[in-house]
Amino acid sequence: xxxxxxETLAEVCAALSNADGPVRVLAGGTDLLARFAxxxxxxxxxVDIKKLAxxxxxxxxxxxxxxxxxxxxxxxxxxxxxxxxYWPGLSEAMDLIGSVQIQGRATLGGNLCNASPAADAVPxxxxxxxxxxxxxxxxxxxxxxxEVIISPGRTCLRQDEFIVSFILPARASRSADAxxxxxxxxxxxxAIAGVAVNLTLDxxxxxxxxxxxxxxxxxxxxxxxxxxxxxxxSSLDEEVLQRFRRQVSVMCRPISDKRSTxxxxxxxxxxxxxxxxxxxxxxxxxxxxx
Length: 290
Ligand SMILES: Cc1cc2nc3c(=O)[nH]c(=O)nc-3n(C[C@H](O)[C@H](O)[C@H](O)COP(=O)(O)OP(=O)(O)OC[C@H]3O[C@@H](n4cnc5c(N)ncnc54)[C@H](O)[C@@H]3O)c2cc1C
Prior knowledge:
The chain has helices spanning 9-18, 32-37, 74-79, 81-86, 88-96, 100-103, 108-113, 121-127, 225-231, 238-251, 262-289; strands at 2-4, 23-26, 45-48, 58-60, 66-69, 131-136, 139-144, 149-151, 154-155, 162-168, 175-182, 193-201, 207-215, 222-223. By secondary structure, the chain is of the alpha+beta class.
């Protein structure tokens, strides 16, 4: 394999489009190198994007939205206090990935582009209504995160494209997110269920906006729109939570494997969804109290 580590957008785009044979983006390498080790065919060219400054930024833009570079490692994302204040659910999702050592390498872009149904940061990005900025020699396009993964291990990106950054929309006041997951072991395991909930309340505590995403219960992460709608207009009373749990269960299409049965995944997802909704609600309501 040939390797290059360009430092400008134009150089990354040129390296991806001029390669003679198969080419792959390399970010933290925590998925890619493990796949090479287990027999995945190697490309003729690896394009390392970690030296690309626009892919390493975490910044709040003047309109209140956040831009997070696709090559930002988890350790930088969870250490960013301003981002954690606005998007605690995304911070806690990144904080759950692997270990401190893995988080020193593992990036947000790699978590999405590995296209695992169980990736922890992806439900949090979907619930946040994040878009990714996809760049190539042909120009730039913005795609909602939920449209990127098309099947396990496959994304909508062409070989000459890469994600430079993610845009999280400006936050309304009284809004917050939360992410919870379940793993069979307490450390270094992959989620058998993951749920992200992102809520906005009015000043009397009624939910006016709601987005829910589920991980590890289908071939791709699930943007659970029908479940999100159940929370609208409520203050998360028990009757609404029960209907919400039932709808989440209906939206789960998990497999049974060595980590869990499909039935257990479905039950746990519904329980986590109700808990994550409660956490997001209480975080958003704290805004009313303060
Ligand atoms: C021990 C261990 C524990 C782990 N635990 C977890 C866990 O708890 N939760 C979890 O979700 N994951 C976990 N993972 C998986 C992995 O760490 C994450 O998915 C990580 O976020 C991948 O990021 P990366 O930068 O290392 O990606 P890489 O390995 O560099 O890349 C992954 C894939 O994405 C592509 N890619 C990367 N960046 C871009 C980009 N910007 N544009 C286009 N394509 C791109 C690469 O070409 C490759 O196909 C674990 C891995 C290990 C080894």
